[in-house]
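ok posting inputs for the heme C job
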Amino acid sequence: MHRSLWLLVLCACLDQYDPRPQWERFAAERQLAHRTYPVLAEDGTLPQLAPPRDPVEVVQEKYATFCGNCHGAKGGGDGVGGIALDPKPRNFRDPIWQQNTTDDRIFSVIKNGGPAVGLSGTMAAFGAMFSDEEIELLIATIRKFSAQ
Ligand code: HEC
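and the output
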């Protein structure tokens, strides 16, 4: 073989040569793998893959998904999904409605639907989509629309 070719082969072998005993190499590789794909956090719990999200932000996104289509992105009762409805979706920016509506009533409407308080059935029950805690946050969101 050509001399420079031998040199190349030698270099390649040296590159992979690891003088540490087998078990030491294995331990080092395991550590590396563990760092990349942690099995358990140091305190024994499952690692947090994503940081927990702000529940207020989550509920606002869910409002946009489940409510805004009818009640409007800013609560004006003017979502496209409500155009053809009769009665119209509630306008949350109406100060008279805000003053005369209790949080308990809003809670029942969202959890059990319009018919639960004698309103139209086009206002569906959302108890399956929102936890009670999320409904409380929804009420706060609805209350804030009037001030915007
Ligand atoms: C399909 C359209 C539609 C969607 C989607 C919808 N609503 Fe409604 N909502 C209505 C209509 C229509 C009314 C008015 C019913 C009536 O006046 O009889 C209403 C009424 C309400 C009221 C007023 C109750 C009152 O006392 O006047 C609240 C609060 C409400 N909706 C909250 C929500 C929330 C929160 C969501 C999302 C989780 C939502 N709605 C999704 C159509 C909708």
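notes: Residues 3-36 form one domain. The pocket of heme C is lined by residues 66-67, 69-71, 81-82, 85, 87, 89-90, 101, 105-106, 109-110, 114, 119-120, 122-123, 126, 138, 142 (CB under 6 Å).
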